Each structure stands twice: as structure tokens, then as C-alpha cells.
């Protein structure tokens, strides 16, 4: 496997130039042994993150989500979903149809959040959300119904219960006062009650990775892992509750939001970080944080390639040693260029168009070397991601004392969905490192919308079952 990726685009590059370029790319080619080591390190970190006393210092946070089951196919009804994770937020009406085993998006609306509101008082933000929710209910003729709501809130939170989540800190340009340290469900409900003209039912707080898993879980009830590999990266999986030391209980399972982007923040990946990874980290807005994410996710891959191209040009291995203003501009080489350059058909032509756009004078050897560089960086990303995913699958198998595990992963994110070789290489790595796990991959449809509604539907089903059991006990 290690030879495959690196021999893909070497045709047409003179041997002496090729060997000099390969010296720079060598640190990106990770052997199967090295990937096994990475997987073993993550395995230890999962345990540290789950521990009652070790989780504070654990780089992989392993956050309990209070989602205690995946769909069983009996869920049904109408649900609302709110998705807040950036400068816009979405409101959705989702219908779960048991007979057809389908999760249908009936309608949705996007509402903008003005820049000044992102920095103003929290009360104003939540009043705005409540007003937009009201407008949506009116437009859908749902006013007067009290519907349960799934709330995807993509900011660092500490979840206390399915309907209680404390904002740790704002990110992504938000800095509303009076919200950090507060329960965001309470703030939303208070804003709705201040209006007094409608109400919502039970609320379930949803992490977008959990939503990804749950949106696939109705179609395939063996879906017990969710993974996002887009701008950022994260994964969640169903863990045995007895191993989740921070939550009371011995029986059953709980979905754990691993926050695996932080893997390596304690320095355990130092041996595989290249000098280019170090520069990307040092020039990022959060140096030293989310090291694993910076090696594999879409926000950073293009920049790693750019730094490599600059170095190769400075050493006269590209473009006759002449850079361009664009090539010297941080983030000017977009990650989507890699997908276009690595296309099986038309990739070389795409490469040449992109290099021209970046103001570079190229020849055919240059364009082949650039493809080789992109392939080395994307291939490493896919294999590291595969090693991490194999760790989760192996953990579930060992937890359940199974010789063989058959499971499904719900996946989302542009890197997985748009890159021509990424998913193939990721799957090949998982097969190598988790040979006793038979894994199906399902691309998630709208995890933060439909998935959030599904989390709410499952929570409602479990609450109803608990109610029934207590009624039966009282009757008997």
C-alpha cells in the first residue's frame, strides 16, 4: 500500500528530479507499522479521556453526549431542528415516517446573524433566534403545536444532560456577553417564554458529529460511529456506559464525542509531524491546539501543500526557482485545488490552470511534481484518519468481546465527499488496521438538521419507554 500512492503520478518526472522531490515527501509516507503505532497511542488516549480523574488533562476529551441509544426504527412524528454554528443559522421542520423508515426534511429556513449581534449581549442573540423560529412556525402552519426540538450548537460545550449544555467558550467570531458558563437550552427557552406566543417541547442538544451518526442510524441501525472530515475533523461512537467514569450507571451505552482533533496536543505525534506541520501550527490562530486536526483536515491541507511548493521552488526543483506573489501568500493554495489536481481524468489540465491562476510559469514536469506533492499530503491525511477510525472500531469490538464486528460509520465533510482518492485510501487503511471489523460507510444527509431531529426522536422514545416501565411497576 505504501508504494501505491507515491507511484501514481511519477511518470514524466526525470529520475534525478524525482529523487530530490521524494526527499521532501518522504516524511509524509507513513508505513503500516507507524500507522499501527499511531492507532495504539490513540487507544491509550481514549482510555485517559474516559477516566474520572485523568480526563482533565487528556488531549482527547471523550465528552459524554447523553445520547443513550441509536434509532431502532420505531421513531416517528414531527420535530424541529435548530442549527447554529456560524454566521447563519437554520431552522428545520423534520418528519420521521416509521412506515417508510425515512427522515424527511419538510422545509427549512436560513436566518442571518448580523455581525454586531455576534458581539452583543447574549439575550439579544437568543431573542433573534426565538423570533426567527416564530416566523418559521407561522410559515409552516405549525403555530399552536408544541414540537420537540433538536439543537445543534457547534461551539465548545460541557454537556450535563441531553437537555443541558454549558457553553465553555465562544469561537468562530462570536463573543456574546452573558452566555459563557451558562446553559444554552435555558437561554433559548427563556427567550421563547419572553415572547409568550408559542412554546417548544423537549429539547435535545446535539453535537454535529453525533448528528452525523444519527442521521444515518435510521437507514442503517448498525450505524454506531459518526465521523466528520471537512474543514475540521471529529468522531463519535457508542461506548459501554460502565467505561464512562464521569456518568453514573453500569448498564447500556452512551455516545461519546471524542473530540479527536486534539490528539497529539501532548506531543505524542511529534515523531510524525513534519517541519511544514510545525509552521502551519505556529501560524494558526490556536498554536499547540488540535494538532491531529491540523495534519488531516480541509482547513489546513492546502496550506501544507503551499509551504512544500514554496520550499521546492526555493530549492530550484519547481518553476525554475521563481515563485509568485500568490504562492507566497498564506492560504492562497486552497484545499479544493488538491481535489481538482488529483482528479483521475483531467487532473493535469486542472493543475496547469491552477498554476497559471497563481501566477506561476510552469512546464509539464512542474505540473506533475505539484500533483505528486498534493497526493503525498492528501494520502497521509486519509491514512491518519483511517488509523484513528480503526482505533474506534477495534475498541467497540473488544468492548463487546466479539471476534468479528460488523458496523456502519456515518460520514460527512467535504474532504471525504469531494476528494477523488480520499475515501478509498481511508477504507484501505481501516481494513489493514482493523481486519476483524467489517465496516460499511454511509454518507450522512444533513447531520445537523435531520440528525438533530433523530437524536430528539430517540430521546423521546427512551423517555416514553421509561414512563411505561414505571407505570407498569405501579400497576403491578
What does it look like?
The chain is of the alpha/beta class and 476 residues long. The protein contains 16 helices and 13 strands. The termini are far apart. It catalyses: a D-hexose + ATP = a D-hexose 6-phosphate + ADP + H(+); D-glucose + ATP = D-glucose 6-phosphate + ADP + H(+). One of its GO terms (biological process) is glucose metabolic process.
Which keywords apply here?
16 helices; alpha/beta; disordered N terminus; five-stranded mixed sheet; six-stranded mixed sheet; 476 residues; globular
What is the compact description of this entry?
With 476 residues, the chain is an alpha/beta fold.
Shape: globular
The total count of strands amounts to 13
**Helix/sheet category:** alpha/beta
**Helicity, as a percent range:** 40-55%
Mean pLDDT comes to 92
Question: How much strand content do the residues show?
Answer: 15-25%
Largest sheet, order of strands side by side?
A: 1-11-10-9-12-13
Low-confidence stretches: 1-7
The assembly state of the depicted protein chains is: single chain
Distance between the termini: 62 Å
What is the string of helix and strand elements?
HHHEEEEHHEEEHEHEEEHHHHHHEHHEH
What's the total helix number? 16
Cα Rg: 24 Å
Largest sheet: 6 strands, mixed
Pathway: Carbohydrate metabolism; hexose metabolism; Carbohydrate degradation; glycolysis; D-glyceraldehyde 3-phosphate and glycerone phosphate from D-glucose: step 1/4
InterPro entries: ATPase_NBD (IPR043129), Hexokinase (IPR001312), Hexokinase_BS (IPR019807), Hexokinase_C (IPR022673), Hexokinase_N (IPR022672)
Pfam families: Hexokinase_1 (PF00349), Hexokinase_2 (PF03727)
Family: Belongs to the hexokinase family.
